[in-house]
Amino acid sequence: MITISNPGKLWDQSVSVGKMVLGKLMATLKTKLRTLKMKTSAVDDGNSSHSYDKIEKSESMRVEIRSKKARKLIEETLRVADSPKTTKSYSF
Q: For residue range 37-56, what is the model confidence (pLDDT) as tens digits?
């Protein structure tokens, strides 16, 4: 049978070893991420994949946007009108 004279000390040692392992792991991950970022930035310099062409809005898209705004305004107006306030004040 094994007896441990000071279990708190053993716990502290295992925690410090765990911290060292975690620190090494974090350093490795940071290095790998840094090299990955450098590789992707070198690839992106020649071919810019982050730029997009702006899409022109069609008339139907404009109508849809206006109708969504109108529906939102109507819902907000109805919500204010139906609120149980004793004194009603209108801002128009």
A: 887 776 555 555 556 778 88
Residue 85 to residues 60, 77, 78, 92, Cα–Cα distance (Å): 39, 14, 13, 17
Measure the CA–CA gap between 25 and 21, rounded to whole angstroms.
6
Read off the pTM: 0.35
Domain of residue 19 covers: 9-39
Residue 31 lies in a domain: yes
Cα angle, residue 88 at apex, residues 90 and 75 outer, rounded to 5° = 60
2 domain-assigned: no
Domain count, the chain: 1
**How far apart, in whole angstroms, are the C-alpha atoms of residue 48 and residue 37?**
15
